[in-house]
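note to self: the first set is below, dont mix up w the second
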Amino acid sequence: MKRLALLALPALLVAASAAPAAAQSAGRTGYVRLEHLFREYYKTKLADAQLREQVEEIRTEREGLVRDFEGLQTRFNEARQQAAQIELSQEVRDQKRTEAETLLGEIRAFQERMQGYDQEKQQAINEQRLRMRNRLLGEIQEHIRDYARRNGFSAVIDASARAANGVEIYQYFDPGADITEQMLDILNRGQAGGR
């Protein structure tokens, strides 16, 4: 038994001395506030401005549709009122009643068209926002991976992550391990108003 223990002792010493070396070669852990990086990335601001422009164009176009719709409603109300005026001949009232019914059909079709327009444009904006977000996050993450490899990090963790209940996952991390500002400098390097 003593002999077995003596044989095992060198193996344990080698393993014990290798453990710190393995830990050192594994690198260190860094933290970024990904939410902050995304918000302050110059390309995010450009993409947001482009989306706002498109939303404004849609709003202007929709205002034109609303004006057209209101004009249709006005014509319907006038035809309906004239159809009820007893001082007009029966023939004119019947004509106005028919006109009002036709306009009512146009109003209903226009309402459906506007509802479809709203849904289509909202979906298009949401899809574009998602594509833009995913593309920009991919760029940011690639920069983080490059920085981590060049600087010996074994992991970089998003310190702005939240649990499903909305509570921050990381209650504390060493501020010296926060590489958010370095990453922001890299992301915005050379841009007007950049860092």
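second set (the one i keep forgetting abt)
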Amino acid sequence: MENLNNLLQELGISKVKLAKYLGVSRQMIYNYLELESLNKWPKEKKIQLFKLLDIENGDDDTIKNVKVNAEYLENVEARLNQSIKSSSSQDTYFNLKDLQKDEQVLVNDLINLIKEKFTEEKNKDTYYEFLYLYHALQSIDSIPEIKYILAYLSKTTGFSDPMEFKFDETAQFILESIVFTAMNLYNNGGAQKSKLISAHERFVKEIENNKEEVLSRTEKITIEKIQALRELGYDKITTENAQEVIAKIAEIQSRKVIMGDKKGE
């Protein structure tokens, strides 16, 4: 692996460029280059590297005997740039050009990390790990505590300073303290399943109640929509009648409120 590192350095190929060429994160490149030999690389990435360097195998003698001259350097640079240019079409697909530089880097790192997990480090939990993360990101605007929990995890894993507060400092401080206390109980055996059954039952019951409320509101809105369409003489909502139908729904809702007030009297 030392010979490969020397060759990459002689060719002027940075870790960032190699990461883009192989379609992995920069951290994964460092991991690859710390392995004992190229035989331990994923087969797909190893073949890509061979194509870039125009070699048939990655044994030490082959890499050591590569003659770096102007023509070889130009050919490697051309293959590298062409591949990176092709892969950068992702930027257009995801509209990354509208993002700031650090935002583009973060989005690309996220994409590469997810790709790596699903291809090279896949296990039975991978799908649900990212599914639940996706659900969390979908809910992050309506549940600010998700941001605080993510910040807490960033701190405990050493990525962020423990006294860094990027959101509501007071709320973040309180939640971090509560989660820290709970995690101490969890990790030190202070919490047993038998003692938490009733708490988990309340947790499940609250979720079921929330779902019932959502379903009830959805059913109510559906009924009001059908009633509005019937009163207006329409079969369905269209672009042309949408505003009229919405106004009729609001009218139906207000009529029900008035009727309810009268009954209360």
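remember for set 2: The radius of gyration is 29 Å.
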